[in-house]
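Exercise 7.
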Amino acid sequence: MIYVNAKFLTKSITGVERYATEISYALKKIDSSILFLIPNQKAETIISQKFNTKCIAPFKEYFWEQLTLPFYLKKKRNPLLINLTNTAPILYKNQILVIHDLAFLHEPKWYTKKARIVFSFLIRQAAKVSPKIVTVSNFTKQEVIKYLKIPSERITVIPGAVPSYISLYEKENFDNKYGEYILTVSSIEPRKNILNLVAAFLRLNNPSIKLVIVGKANSRVFNTINYDFAQNKNIILTGYISDEELVGLYKNARLFAYLSYYEGFGFPPLEAIYCGCPALVSNTASLPEICGDLAEYCNPDDVDGIASKMELILSRKKRNNNEGIRLLKQKFDWQRSAEMILDLANDVQ
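Solution. The predicted structure, written as tokens, is:
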């Protein structure tokens, strides 16, 4: 019997939760007996109904993961546990741990003090006791070797893919309520380099173009940035939006810009490319590895260079997405990734 630490089902969906959810769908298709363990709190109702879930008590959040979860599993004679979202029980050994990135070690100032301490302790300890580590890119694998001193042979790269929600709406036509715009999908935090994106956008000096930012700040985890976005009527913050709305924004945008300093994988550029939107991304971390020849690249610190690349891309006609879709499907596949995780599970059990 295989169990999944499904604490992510109680969270709003960002990149890490997106990976966990998609992999879980694929795992369920392969092996319907896999049991998804959730805390004794309200899970995302629609999502949890799609899995074979079991709610175990007491506690929630990290206390649930570190106390309730391992205690329950030890009563079940220590079955294999798959952890898909960076953290895992530090006192349980029969498990697989997926590490998405180590940004909190690469640049601690991006995070709040509490988040740095918690992540550093939990991930270091969980990595020590887990026989197998999964990373979502070769870049993150090298980061794990560098910062956590984990031998290469214990680490397997199992990437994500284009999230399945895109295909639900890809054939729809969406009204364009913003006109001509540049789009980014990002939390409002220093790592995402939003200030340089805004600076480059302002240097375009084109009142007919807007900048649409999908996302919001998470001050519990990340340090905040100081900027009054409301001072410019052409900069629009949407906050979190539905998947359907996001696909519409991807399909109608003139350009997708993703200038993050550090990503372990990075779903938004792949989503944009799949929707036929030209993508301009940073030439840092995992982004060149993941996007390959399907995106344009820039130095995230070169504001003039970013603005020039934006102008160049905006001068072109919007490209057809058929080739991008074909190449992305060829390179990334959720079912293939789930099979790789189960192959690892067979090695561990």
